[in-house]
Amino acid sequence: MYYFDNAATTPVRSEAVQAAVEAMERDWGNPSSRCTKGEQAAARLKGWREDVAGALGCQAQELAFTSCGTESNNWAIRGAAELARRKGRHIITDALEHAAVLEPCRELERQGYEVTRLQPDRGGNLSLEAFRKALRPDTVLVSVMLVNNELGTVNPVDQFSAAVRQAGCPALVHCDAVQGFLKLPFTPQGLGVDLLSVSGHKVHAPKGIGALYIRRGLKLPPLLLGGGQEEGRRSGTEATAQIAAFAAAVRAGRQTLDRDLDHMAQLKAYAIARLALVPGLKPLTQGGAPHILPVTMPGYQSEVLVRFLADRDICLSSGSACHKGRPSHVFAALNLPKPERDGVLRISFSPENTPAEVDALADGLKAAHAQLFPSMS
Ligand code: PLP
Question: pTM of the predicted model, to two decimals?
Answer without folding.
Answer: 0.97
